[in-house]
Amino acid sequence: MSKFIFVTGGVVSSLGKGISGASIGKLLQLRGLKVNMIKCDPYINIDPGTLSPYQHGEVFVTADGAEADLDLGTYERFLDVPMTKKNTNTTGTIYQAVIDRERRGDYNGVTVQVVPHITNEIKSRFIPFEKDFDVTIIEIGGTVGDIEGLPFLEATRQFKTERGRENVLNVHATLIPYIASAAELKTKPTQHSVNKLREIGIDPDILICRTEKPMPKGMKEKLSLFCSVAPEAVIEAMDVASIYQLPEAFEKQGITDLIIKRLHLKPRKKNDGKWFKFINKATAAGRRRITIGIAGKYAELKDAYKSVDESLNLAGMSNNVEVKVKYINTQKDEIPAALKGLDAVIVPGGFGKRGIAGKIETIKYAREKGLPFLGICLGMQCAVIEAARNQAGLKNADSCEFAPDTKDPVINMMEEQKKVKNLGGTMRLGNYEAKLKTGSIAQKLYKKSAIQERHRHRYEFNTDYVPALEKLGLEVTGWHKNLLPEIVERKDHPYFIAAQFHPEFASRPMKPHPLFDGLVKAAFKNKTQNSGE
Ligand code: GLN
Question: Is the Cβ–Cβ distance between 188 and 226 less than 8 Å?
């Protein structure tokens, strides 16, 4: 029988519930258990696909084409288990399913209510992995006390009663704030937040206490007394330099054995410590540092490029260098002045016209000066526009996304797409295959000739322009079905490669993505050459 761990959050949002849940998942996985994770987001949007990055950060894309919360990216990176549409739920999808059923007449004339109909639907979303996984960890988004989170918490309560305490654990992540004037860490907000959970019938089994200072002696006991949680189940979560250090910090406090005991789990092996060792070495201080720019329009919002940032970090970890990321605002910053001191630059994905000129300027600079460059999705489209404008001299080269009146735009909409009124349905989402040209940089990096990568875009490189731009050095080396260009690269450059897909969703610790690995290596080479080392 599969076991379930629910992760809720209290006091404030952005506590790192996703990272805490994923760390627990990693620890169980390191004991040979099969772990999957689910996110429940209480907002009403069907998915975050239409949300501005200012709301919840980047939209993570799964291989099967779900547009999901960025926590799914954390789950994939920690567990290396592919996320799917079944790993993500919102209030919107739950109500939609219930209302569709109501319209079909499936409820046989009864009044449809939050309890039991919505809660039943929610509970059905907790169990898709129970056959194939030993443990499912379910993160409930938001903070205890939010009105919109109530149906999820109620479903959690019912689920624990139905399945029994030996099969379901509640982990509550909370904040222990430090009050500088009193020079003290305070437990009261946690007490209140646990009481709030109790009011709705949930008693936490484990407390994860986020704190910026070490908890003083006796604090675990105090929290245990006031919150009715065993002292060994009060886990300190001090701020860590790298999120990947959190599993070991938890392990040292005995959380894995505690969970194994409480849930009567049967681990298949001992933790051999290899993962911890890799993380410790890869995040150690004193590594050589390189600086890589991310030139986009959400420069002030780190979460908007979460997976790109993590991919750089992970590629750095595998190459034993520290990657410092510098955000460049292509709308406001002076380019190329803002690119000074960079060892490489990325133009990431994006939507809309804002900041495009700065992105094209960035790419022109990278091309001319031999600065290692990786273009992602919109970044590839801009690389194509840059070549068409500046090398081929096509003054009005543009994308039909920003310049709908352009005749024969270099970035175009496919004929079939034009027939569909509601463009939302015409996005290329999720995995598509690309065949790589023999002898290309891409093929050398991937070390294979066919790849599957995740997409999230509408527009395509207009193939009418491929021969002319190839003559100018911008070669298409990845194709989907000989129809859609997937990768462009330049051989006359230290590292210039751009992809129509999003490589950033597929980076893992110990398995950096080939395109990021290549970029970090090229950036390091660039730095050592320029400094004359
Ligand atoms: N806006 C572009 C398109 O829809 C690029 C999308 C992206 O970068 N994710 O094709």
Answer: no
Low-confidence residues of the chain, pLDDT below 50?
423-424
Burial 470-481 (b: 16+ CB within 10 A, else e): eeebbbbbbbbe
Q: Where are the alpha helices (DSSP H) in 433-481?
A: 441-446, 466-471
What pTM value is reported for the model?
Answer: 0.94
Active site residue 400: no
In the prediction, which pLDDT does 419 show?
59
For the chain, the C-alpha Rg in angstroms (whole number) is: 25
Contact 199, 189 (CB under 8 A): no
Q: What φ, ψ does residue 123 adopt, rounded to 5°?
A: -60, -35
pLDDT at site 36: 98
Residue 112 is predicted with a pLDDT of 97
- 493 catalytic residue (yes or no): no
Ligand 1 pocket at CB < 6 A: 349-351, 377-378, 401, 456-459
**Which pLDDT score, from 0 to 100, does residue 533 have?**
58
- Cα–Cα separations (whole angstroms), residue 294 to 299, 312, 327: 8, 10, 5
Q: Tell me, rounded to whole angstroms, the distance of Cα 286 from its chain centroid.
A: 27
Q: How far, in Å, is the centroid of ligand 1 from the Cα of 451?
A: 20
**Which atom of ligand 1 is least distant from the CA of 401?**
1
What pLDDT score does 423 carry? Answer: 47
Task: Mark residue 254 as left, alpha or beta (left: phi above 0; alpha: psi -120 to 50; beta: remaining).
Answer: left
Q: Kindly name the residue from 40, 227, 377, 400 that is annotated as catalytic.
A: 377
Distance CA 490, CA 469 (A): 11
How many angstroms is it from 533 CA to the middle of ligand 1?
Answer: 39
Q: What residues pair up with 6 in beta bridges, in sequence order?
A: 138, 170
Q: What atom in ligand 1 is closest to the CA of residue 350? A: 8
- 379-517-251-139 Cα dihedral, nearest 10 degrees: 20
Q: How high is the pLDDT of residue 380?
A: 98
Q: What is the pLDDT of residue 511?
A: 96
Neighbours of 291 (CB within 10 A): 16
Ligand 1 center–CA 500 separation, angstroms:
8
- DSSP assignment of 348-404 equals ----SSTTHHHHHHHHHHHHHHT--EEEETHHHHHHHHHIIIIIS--TT--BTTT-T
State the chain's maximal CA–CA distance in angstroms: 79
Task: For each of the domains in the chain, give its residue range(s) and CATH number, in order of start.
Answer: 3-277 (3.40.50.300), 285-531 (3.40.50.880)
Bridge pairing between strands 168-175 and 3-9:
parallel
CA 200 to chain CA mean position, Å: 31
Q: Which residue minimizes the CA distance to atom 1 of ligand 1?
A: 351
